[in-house]
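Hi Y.,

Following your request, here is the sequence exactly as I used it, all 269 residues.
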Amino acid sequence: MRQFILNGQKIVNGLVNIDGKDFRYLRQVLRVKPGDMISLRLESGELKAATVSLIDEKAHRILLQICAESGYNSRHSVTRGVQAEELTGLNEGVEFWLFQFITKAQKFEQIVRQATECGVLKIVPIAGMYSEKSSVMAQEGAKRERLERIIKEARQQSGSPVNTEVLQPHSLEDAIDLWNENPAEESLALVLYERTDFTEPLQKVIEEFGRDKIRRVCICCGCEGGISPSEIEILCKKGLFHPLHFAVNILRAETAALYGIAAVQSNIL
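Below is the corresponding structure, written out as tokens. Let me know if you'd prefer a different format.
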């Protein structure tokens, strides 16, 4: 765990009370002890150092005390190796979105987990032509709590300062309208396409757009059946998306999303 994310817990007089599932996670999974240090990510996004000051086994409660100054003693930290506070400058001010055509539930959860670890800000599920109806219905059902838990776990493990959010499922047109609400001159939109028709090299697109101008990037990935030619046409004409084709092996939907995010980030950041 690179950090512990506060969701609703309040800091009162420099103290934070942890109970419920979070108590079980810290005590039974991480096996924290009094004196251990933890990186706390506040709801504001600020990172604070805290020490475990009290563990009440009967009440299932852990009391954390905010440190007056940041800084970690590796002998007492529950995190080994790189600390969350060392992960500075992530994405360097560039906001990443993922338009993900809805896959089967298990694959979609994997995509959410990996996108969160990569620092994607917004994940927009899209009910596409090739998305299975049962998968779309599952996204529209009561899965929000599970996805939020996956995001929290991924952020805690990776140390990501980005507050990743999965939106409600959108139609393709509605998702494009949402993306187009912000200035186009700062926003680069890319769609990964398994065919080579009308595609462009990633580096060429970035150079022509202007690397230093980029403040928002949207990466659109297909589901198990890919993206239909008509949907590609809508993305390109209405959303001004640039179609990309990577000359690699055929990738599963969950692999393609991670590969695409990593390739774009590596070429921009």
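The longest strand covers residues 47-56.

Thanks again,
Q.
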